[in-house]
Specification:
9 strands, alpha+beta, 4 domains, 18 helices, DNA polymerase, domain 1
Length: 429
């Protein structure tokens, strides 16, 4: 049983009452407590009651309740009319959806203001370019991959550079791509470049979501249609013969070894550019493509065919780089000269004027090797291993299996140097 003493209002004029309670057992009093009652006008709901062992604790609690109401009131009445009207309009929608205002705010804030901070497309692209240069220096990224991103990202910079990446909208992207007067493949490549930028941004919390997730199959067809997938183009035995003999009689181009390894060993162009003579185990009959230069970053040994050995024997200088690279795109520049000299050109009219252009099938040397090797041996796994297809013979069957006959393959790997061919010195000036 307890006996109540008189109450006090605290803070003064607040409506909050603190009542002293003297607790008794029979005729004896054993302690005193303090009951705080917070009225409905402050709680906004039911009355709040709480008991404390001492008056200081009761007063502290009462003041906290009063100050809280005061702060909330000041916030509400300091709000602009538009803000109060929005609250009144939106609160019923939240209630109908079973969502509290706090839940809505906590969901929206990280999406509207990502935790990684504000970044423009320019800043994100600069970060990515720097990262790719570092990877290139470490040998974990191919040169042409870095170059392709640098070139394609420039178009993104021109269009969206000053824009915050978190503010980029899907409709803006679609409008940009749809206005490109470029080949479907090129449009797709630019979309892939932007996709990499946005994926990087979401990973770094510069943007809350990947807006390209909303790009439907229908959208993609409208933007770039059906990108045609062509079977690989291969050289005829006669064309291959013409190409390598042109390289033989033009030593100043320094292309004989590269063409030989491309045609008869199937080594990729980007691998050829970085190949060193120390990797050519001539006496052992194979070329080692190290993980440092391989596309798939895994080592493989490529067999030197009998006819390839004859062509290689004509290279008097077999040390250092297999083919030089004096400046950016030097290899490509010299290869185009070789194609012109070998007659891989045709005359076309441009703006009413006749112009000679190079006609060359992309990756023609490697595709030719794959097709003729498979036709000659009939063993898909063997050809896949030579090509370095880590996924087995799936790529081989989808690309090479019906492109050449065994008779053609015998003629292809029967291409040998002229009997009167002299040794040439690579790197000739």
């Amino acid at each position: 049983m307890s006996k109540d003493a008189e109450s006090i209002e605290y803070p003064p004029a607040s409506g909050i009452r603190i009542r002293e309670k003297i607790n008794t057992s029979g005729k004896d009093s054993y302690n005193t407590s303090y009951a705080v009652t917070v009225p409905v006008k402050i709680t906004g709901g039911a009355r709040l009651r709480k008991q404390f062992k001492d008056l200081d604790g009761a007063k502290k609690f009462a003041k906290e309740q009063y100050d809280g109401k005061e702060v909330q009131g000041r916030v509400f009445f300091s709000a602009k009319d538009r803000e109060r009207n929005e609250f009144v309009d939106l609160l019923p929608l939240l209630r109908d959806a079973g969502i509290t205002l706090r839940e809505a705010v906590e969901f929206a804030l990280p999406r509207l203001r990502p935790t990684g901070g504000d970044r423009t497309l320019t800043q994100v692209i600069e970060e990515l370019r720097a990262s790719k240069l570092t990877m290139l220096e470490k040998g974990t990224l191919r040169e042409h991959s870095e170059r392709a991103f640098r070139i394609r990202s420039e178009k993104v910079l021109v269009e969206f550079g000053d824009q915050l990446v978190r503010d980029l909208m899907l409709d803006e992207v679609k409008s940009w791509l749809s206005c490109m007067e470029l080949a479907p493949r090129t449009i797709k490549n630019h979309l892939n470049c932007l996709a990499e930028i946005i994926k990087y941004s979401t990973a770094r919390k510069y943007a809350s979501e990947n807006i390209l997730d909303g790009l439907t199959t229908h959208d993609r067809k409208e933007l770039y249609g059906e990108v045609e997938t062509k079977e690989p183009g291969i050289l005829t035995p006669g064309e291959a013969d013409r190409l390598i003999n042109t390289a033989l009689v033009n030593p100043e181009l320094d292309m004989l070894a590269a063409v030989c390894f491309g045609l008869f060993c199937g080594i990729r162009t980007e691998e050829l550019k970085r190949l060193d003579w120390k990797d050519v185990r001539f006496d052992e009959g194979f070329v080692t493509i190290s993980g440092k230069i391989a596309k798939k970053r895994s080592i493989r040994n490529v067999t030197i065919s009998d006819n390839a050995a004859l062509w290689i024997s004509l290279c008097a200088k077999r040390e250092g780089e297999v083919t030089r690279s004096d400046f950016f795109n030097d290899y490509d520049h010299r290869f185009r000269k070789l194609l012109t000299k070998a007659g891989f050109t045709e005359k076309v009219k441009v703006n009413g004027k006749e112009k000679e252009v190079i006609v060359w099938k992309k990756n023609a040397m490697r595709h030719s090797f794959g097709s003729y090797h498979f036709a000659l041996h009939g063993e898909s796994i063997k050809t896949s291993n030579e090509l370095g297809h880590i996924q087995g013979d799936h790529v081989l069957f989808s690309h090479y299996r019906a492109l050449a006959t065994k008779k053609q393959a015998e003629k292809y790997f029967g291409i040998v140097p002229p009997v009167n061919a002299n040794k040439i010195v690579e790197f000739a000036s």
